[in-house]
Give the backbone structure.
Amino acid sequence: MKKIILLSFCLLTTAWIYAQDDVVPETGTAVEEQLRAPNTEDATGTMEEAPQNMGQQPAPITRNIQINADPRIDRLVQAHIRSAKKNKVEGFRIQIIQDTDRKDMEEAKHRFRGAFPQLKLYETYDPPFYKLRAGNFTDRFEAYHYYQRIKPNFTRAFIVRDTVRK
C-alpha cells in the first residue's frame, strides 16, 4: 500500500513539474502578436508597433437565414397569445398541499377529486416542492367559501394569490 501511494505521489509531482514549463509559441503566430505589448522589440532588435485592433472586440459574424413559412401560422400564434392573455387574470386558488414527496401530493389529489369534483386542480413543481392548487377564484370571498368546506378534510390547505383563468 505504501508503494502505491509513493508511486502515485511521484507521478503527480512529475506531472506538476512538467506542467510548469513555459511553452514559447512559434514566431509569427497570432498568439505571439496578441501577447506583444505596443512598441515592443522583436527578435531582430527593431521596434514594431502593436496591431491597431488590439484590445478591441472582433467584428461580429453575420449570417442571413431566410425562413419561408406560411403567414397563417404567424396569425394563429398571435391569436393564441392574445386569447391566452385575455383569459387570465390575477385571482386566488386554494393550495391543498405543498410537499417534497410526490406520492403524498398524488394521494391528496385523488382524495380531493373524490370530495370536490367541481373544482379544477393544478399541479406544479417548484423545486423542491410539489404543489397542488384548486379553483379559479377572481374574488377572495368566493375562495374563502370553498376554503371553509375544504379545510376540515385537508388541514394544510390555505388561500394563495395566483394567475387564474376567467
User: Anything to note?
Assistant: The two ends are 72 Å apart (CA to CA). Residues 84-165 form a domain with the Alpha-Beta Plaits fold (CATH 3.30.70.1070). The mean pLDDT is 79. The longest helix spans residues 2-19.
